[in-house]
Amino acid sequence: MSDTGTRPFCGPATEQQWIRPRIARITHVDLAVSIDLERQRIEGTVEHRCEFHDRRSGRILELDQHDLEIRSVEIDGRPAAFTTADNRLAIPIADALATASVRVSFIADHPAKGMYFIPADPSRAQVAMCWTQGAMEDHSHWFPCFDSPNNLSTWRIGVRHRSSLIAVANGVKEPATAPVDGWTTSVYVQDRPHVVYLVNVVVGDFAEVRDDSGPVPIAHYVPRGREAEGAAMFRATGFAIRWLSDYIGLAFPWPRYGHVVVHKFMWGGMENATLTTITDRVLMDAQVQAREDIDCDSLVIHELVHQWYGDLLTMKGWSDIWLNESFATYLEARCAAAWRAQGDSSREADELALLLWIDRRAYLDEDSGRYRRALVTNRYEDAYELFDRVAYEKGCLVLHQLCRRLGEERFRAALTLYTSRHAHDLVETADFRQALEDATGEPLDWYFDQWVHRAGHPRIKARWRHDPVRGALVVDLEQTHASAKPASEQHVLTHRLAIEVVWPVTGSRDLERRRIELVRAVDTLVLPCPAAPAWVALDPDGDLLAEWDEDADATQLCARLQDHRLGADARARAAVA
Ligand SMILES: [Zn+2]
User: Fold this and answer.
1) Rounded to the nearest whole angstrom, what is the distance from the C-alpha of residue 59 to the centroid of ligand 1?
2) Coil, helix or strand for 530?
3) How far does residue 322's CA lie from ligand 1's centre (Å)?
């Protein structure tokens, strides 16, 4: 076995990233901008309502800004001093103030990031538009803000734009005002708080596609002329809102939902609160989707999951990004399997097994080919680096494994507790663990140490034989990732694993199932089994995130492959063994 997966994620000099300090809670942001698509220019004001933590003297409110022209600053309606340096706008706060309304007047001209301008190009079916992408910390390239995830605000976003275009943003739209000289102001109010990177402002030549399939009003915005494709692309939305609300045990947390489809988007989708941005690369009608075997539904579901995990609950710092992406990847798989199966539970299990198999392959490829890191790490150069197969696929498999270990009912109870306890709040990994322990009564410190804070996964060598004298199945198990190391390291590397062992009962249609707890690097299990079984399968449902080295002859593997009493995972593993 090659020594794979041991390359480090970052160099020894990579510094730790800590949560950014702040002197105030910014409870509300009122953004009023005029957006000129032709001139690629944004001009306006942003007002931050601040509640200061204390009244220490010498306080400076620091907002982020990149290449903005700051025209003036007012505090509670009076002109205030300010300086700009190192991409920050620094505003001294008078000692007496416990709260303040800080209003900044600014211009952004051809912003390098944050807001992107796309000209119309009929030859490419491209309409004129501008769209924003805040994640990770890019909104400060087009308006001054506290551009960090550790603050929650309510929002009012007013956009003055050409009357021939549509403007959409987070929240609920207020009644439109009458156009003046060909310009209209559209105002959106978001009265449920979320972090700054989830702000979404889009202006363009869009058509609205209404969707009556959900428990909240749903509207999608697509480039004008692409309405039929939009309806096909978002067909899973209503089903997924209902399924996720039921599974999580918490209703959809926002007053409305929808997507806006944009050109030249750098990601597949971005889960902006109430209004997901999505790439036009998957904007196609149902026939093309079927013919090209393109799965738009999983992308739509993934972004929808984030309305709970990412938007309703947001990680306090990027180190805990798995609380967004692993949850979205796992519930995407669960919901997509249910959507595809349309009520057929055995097909749903097979669909889920397939999706998790793909996730496992993606993670293992990265682990063997690129690097290995723990799910939670604060050592990185740029937050973008954390959006990898560990944050998405490994975390997804760690959650699935946890669900299988606890059982569906207890896992869902914990998910409901975690989600309701921290709704509209910032979270870190310890909050999730605490909710799991409170809901189940089961200490999970060891599980989080093993799977969340430690890098990698176990490799298990398994050999079995039937002992006719003892009437027993003898299973030798070795955690080779640990057993190969010096004794002093073995106890740290050895995983605690619940493993199911299954075999067919000779002369019967029954399967014998035994669940064993492996806690040593090397162990031998003796299980009562009077007659030699046709095959043996370990972890038949693929619950564990492990690499298996199974030694069985071809006859046994063929028998296992063809036995439909087994789940898809165990059959598939027999096929590739
Ligand atoms: Zn995601």
Assistant:
1) 37
2) coil
3) 9
140 located within any domain: yes
Mean pLDDT over 299-328 rounds to 98
> Does residue 5 surpass a pLDDT of 60?
no
Residue 426 shares a structural domain with residue 469: no
**Distance (Å) from CA 60 to ligand 1 centroid:** 35
Residue 391 shares a structural domain with residue 447:
yes
> Is residue 396 one of the residues assigned to a domain?
yes
Query: Are residues 562 and 522 part of one domain?
Result: yes
* Spacing, Cα 304 to ligand 1 middle (Å): 9
- Radius of gyration of the chain measured on its C-alpha atoms: 27
Q: Are residues 446 and 548 in the same domain?
A: no
Judged on CB neighbours under 10 Å (0-12, 13-18, 19+), 499 is: buried
Q: What per-residue confidence (pLDDT) applies to 563?
A: 87
If one counts every other C-beta atom within 10 angstroms of the C-beta of residue 118, the result is: 18
Domain coverage including residue 487: 459-576
Last residue of one domain, picked from the residues 140, 162, 195: 195
Other beta carbons less than 10 A from residue 210's beta carbon: 10
- CATH number for the domain that contains residue 39: 2.60.40.1730
State in Å: Cα 124 to ligand 1 middle: 28
- Is the domain of 325 the same as that of 182? no
Closest CA to 397 of 247, 546, 548: 546
Query: What does the pLDDT read at residue 6?
Result: 65
The H or E element that residue 168 is part of is strand 166-169
Interval between CA 16 and ligand 1 midpoint (Å): 24
**Ligand 1 mean position, distance from CA 335 (Å):** 14
CATH number reported for the structural domain that contains residue 563 in this entry: 2.60.40.1840
120, 115, 132, 303: which is closest to 224 by C-alpha? 120
User: How many Å lie between the centroid of ligand 1 and the Cα of residue 300?
Assistant: 10
User: With 80 as the cut, is the pLDDT of residue 184 above it?
Assistant: yes
Q: Say yes or no to pLDDT of 569 above 90.
A: no
Flag whether 480 is in a domain. Answer: yes
Distance CA 315, CA 321 (A): 6
Which domain CATH number covers 354? 1.10.390.10
**C-alpha–C-alpha distance, residues 158 and 42, integer Å:** 12
Does residue 47 lie in a domain region? yes
Would you tell me how many other CB atoms lie within 10 Å of the CB of residue 167?
26
Task: Judge if 185 and 322 occupy the same domain.
Answer: no
How many domains are contained in the chain?
3
User: Is residue 442 located within the same domain as residue 477?
Assistant: no
What is residue 39's predicted lDDT score, i.e. its pLDDT? 98
Q: How far is the CA of 299 from the centre of ligand 1 (A)?
A: 9
- Give, as one character, the DSSP assignment of residue 276: E
The string of pLDDT tens digits covering residues 368-383 is: 999 999 999 999 999 9
* Ligand 1 centroid, distance to 319 Cα (angstroms): 15
CA 298–ligand 1 middle distance (angstroms): 11
**Per-residue pLDDT band at 3 (split at 50, 70, 90):** very low
Question: 256 C-alpha vs ligand 1 centroid, how far in Å?
Answer: 20
68 Cβ contact list (under 8 Å, min separation 6): 89, 106, 107, 108, 141, 142, 143, 144
Domain boundary residue, one of 451, 480, 502:
451
Please give the Cα distance from 498 to 450 (Å, whole number): 13
Please say whether the beta carbons of 567 and 542 come within 8 A: yes
Are 320 and 191 members of one domain? Answer: no
